[in-house]
Amino acid sequence: MSRILTDRQAIRQWVEARGGNPVLMDVPDGSKSRTILQLAFGQEPLNAGNDADQDRVGGFQLVSWEEWLTALETGNLALMVSDDPSGGNEAEYNFVERH
Predict the structure, then answer these.
(1) Whether the predicted pLDDT of 33 surpasses 90
(2) How far apart are CA 57 and CA 69, in angstroms?
Protein backbone atom coordinates (compact mmCIF):
# COMPACT_ATOMS: atom_id res chain seq x y z
CA MET A 1 0.00 0.00 0.00
CA SER A 2 1.31 3.46 -0.90
CA ARG A 3 0.71 6.89 0.52
CA ILE A 4 1.84 10.36 -0.51
CA LEU A 5 3.77 12.46 1.99
CA THR A 6 3.91 16.26 1.77
CA ASP A 7 4.33 17.19 5.44
CA ARG A 8 7.98 17.99 6.24
CA GLN A 9 7.99 16.15 9.57
CA ALA A 10 6.24 13.08 8.13
CA ILE A 11 8.76 12.86 5.27
CA ARG A 12 11.72 13.21 7.61
CA GLN A 13 10.36 10.62 10.05
CA TRP A 14 9.70 8.10 7.26
CA VAL A 15 13.21 8.50 5.81
CA GLU A 16 15.04 8.48 9.15
CA ALA A 17 13.10 5.41 10.33
CA ARG A 18 14.72 3.57 7.41
CA GLY A 19 18.23 4.93 8.01
CA GLY A 20 18.07 7.46 5.18
CA ASN A 21 19.70 10.82 4.56
CA PRO A 22 18.78 13.69 2.20
CA VAL A 23 21.08 14.20 -0.78
CA LEU A 24 21.15 16.60 -3.75
CA MET A 25 23.15 16.69 -6.97
CA ASP A 26 23.49 19.53 -9.45
CA VAL A 27 23.80 18.19 -13.00
CA PRO A 28 24.38 20.07 -16.27
CA ASP A 29 21.23 20.79 -18.26
CA GLY A 30 22.13 22.76 -21.36
CA SER A 31 23.61 26.11 -20.31
CA LYS A 32 22.18 25.77 -16.79
CA SER A 33 22.16 23.09 -14.15
CA ARG A 34 19.30 21.29 -12.47
CA THR A 35 19.12 19.77 -9.04
CA ILE A 36 18.33 16.10 -8.59
CA LEU A 37 16.73 15.04 -5.32
CA GLN A 38 17.58 11.65 -3.89
CA LEU A 39 17.63 9.75 -0.63
CA ALA A 40 20.65 7.70 0.46
CA PHE A 41 20.04 4.77 2.76
CA GLY A 42 22.62 3.11 4.98
CA GLN A 43 25.17 5.94 4.66
CA GLU A 44 25.71 6.79 8.35
CA PRO A 45 29.43 5.74 8.31
CA LEU A 46 30.18 8.64 5.93
CA ASN A 47 30.05 11.17 8.73
CA ALA A 48 32.21 9.10 11.09
CA GLY A 49 35.57 9.68 9.37
CA ASN A 50 37.75 12.63 8.51
CA ASP A 51 37.84 12.06 4.75
CA ALA A 52 37.74 15.18 2.61
CA ASP A 53 34.87 13.75 0.57
CA GLN A 54 32.82 12.38 3.43
CA ASP A 55 29.81 14.43 2.30
CA ARG A 56 29.70 12.66 -1.07
CA VAL A 57 27.70 9.58 -1.99
CA GLY A 58 28.39 8.62 -5.61
CA GLY A 59 28.35 12.26 -6.72
CA PHE A 60 25.43 13.24 -4.53
CA GLN A 61 26.02 15.68 -1.69
CA LEU A 62 24.55 15.08 1.76
CA VAL A 63 22.58 18.21 2.70
CA SER A 64 20.49 19.50 5.57
CA TRP A 65 16.86 18.51 5.82
CA GLU A 66 15.88 22.18 5.43
CA GLU A 67 17.76 22.47 2.11
CA TRP A 68 16.39 19.16 0.80
CA LEU A 69 12.78 19.84 1.81
CA THR A 70 12.94 23.32 0.28
CA ALA A 71 14.18 21.80 -3.01
CA LEU A 72 11.35 19.24 -2.86
CA GLU A 73 8.76 21.99 -2.41
CA THR A 74 10.36 24.25 -5.04
CA GLY A 75 10.08 21.38 -7.52
CA ASN A 76 6.40 20.94 -6.56
CA LEU A 77 7.16 17.35 -5.56
CA ALA A 78 5.90 14.98 -2.89
CA LEU A 79 7.17 11.61 -1.71
CA MET A 80 5.10 8.52 -2.52
CA VAL A 81 6.12 5.78 -0.10
CA SER A 82 5.33 2.13 0.43
CA ASP A 83 4.09 1.17 3.86
CA ASP A 84 3.68 -2.50 3.02
CA PRO A 85 4.36 -4.31 6.31
CA SER A 86 5.57 -7.39 4.41
CA GLY A 87 8.41 -5.27 2.98
CA GLY A 88 10.08 -4.79 6.35
CA ASN A 89 12.16 -1.62 6.55
CA GLU A 90 12.84 -1.43 2.83
CA ALA A 91 12.76 2.11 1.55
CA GLU A 92 10.47 2.01 -1.47
CA TYR A 93 9.66 5.50 -2.68
CA ASN A 94 9.10 7.68 -5.74
CA PHE A 95 8.92 11.40 -6.28
CA VAL A 96 5.51 12.50 -7.57
CA GLU A 97 3.93 15.81 -8.46
CA ARG A 98 2.48 17.59 -5.45
CA HIS A 99 -1.27 18.27 -5.71
Answers:
(1) no
(2) 18
